Amino acid sequence: MRILLAEDVHMIRGALVALLELEPDFEVVASVDRGDLIVAAAVETRPEVAVIDIDLPGIDGLTAATNLRETLPSCRTLILTSLGRPGTLRRAMAAQVSGFLLKDAPPDRLAAAVRVVASGGRVIDPQLAMSAWVSPGNPLSPRELEVLRLAAGGADAVEIAGLLFLSKGTVQNYLTSIVTKLYARNRVDAIRIAEEAGWIP
Which Pfam families match (predicted)? Predict the structure, then answer.
């Protein structure tokens, strides 16, 4: 089975390559340290499965997985993460990845997950699935999400008001409501909470 591996920490990447190649039917045909190198490496080497770390320089692992699916749909993707945020799992499912596994899973689970993914199945780490199951829903209205999305993009209250045809006071009211609903310390904290939950990109 031909595998592409994307991991930016050199020691971890080397260890994962060695671990995968312990399996007699696995061959790591490409190993990259940046998300923006994945598609080109996959087109050149034609792997059956791409094992991708979620946090990569260049572009993140989920964006790279989406691009890979569009360019080489025959290649299945298995995302590795060290953090079990429910929003991240939702983003992974939206990106139509085939598997999502915590990095601290037992080593034999990685090989088993690669086999399941390669055969067309899906793998979701039980801890990640439980985290997503028990996480609270999004308390923000569509308009509040729109305001927060623009704020996350760097727009201030005046700019948001102009873009949404609202008054500056109305935008400030929305921002205050958002901070309150998310139990955030301030707007920056509210943006962080919403991003980690997967409610805004």
Answer: GerE (PF00196), Response_reg (PF00072)
Per residue in 149-193, pLDDT tens? 999 999 999 999 999 999 999 999 999 999 988 878 889 989 988
Please answer whether residues 65 and 39 qualify as being in contact, where contact means their C-beta atoms are separated by less than 8 angstroms.
no
Closest alpha carbon to 58 in 87, 84, 32? 32
- Cα gap 184→166, rounded to integer Å: 24
Residue 110 and residue 154 share a domain: no
60 and 86 in contact (C-beta within 8 Å)?
A: no
Give the three-class secondary structure for 172: helix
Query: Of all helices (H) and strands (E), which one includes residue 32?
Result: strand 27-32
The secondary structure of 26-83 as a DSSP string is -EEEEEESSGGGHHHHHHHH--SEEEEESS-SSS-HHHHHHHHHHH-TTSEEEEEES-
| Last residue in a domain, options 132, 150, 177 | 132
Strand-pairing partners, residue 139, are none
pLDDT of 73 over the 60 cut: yes
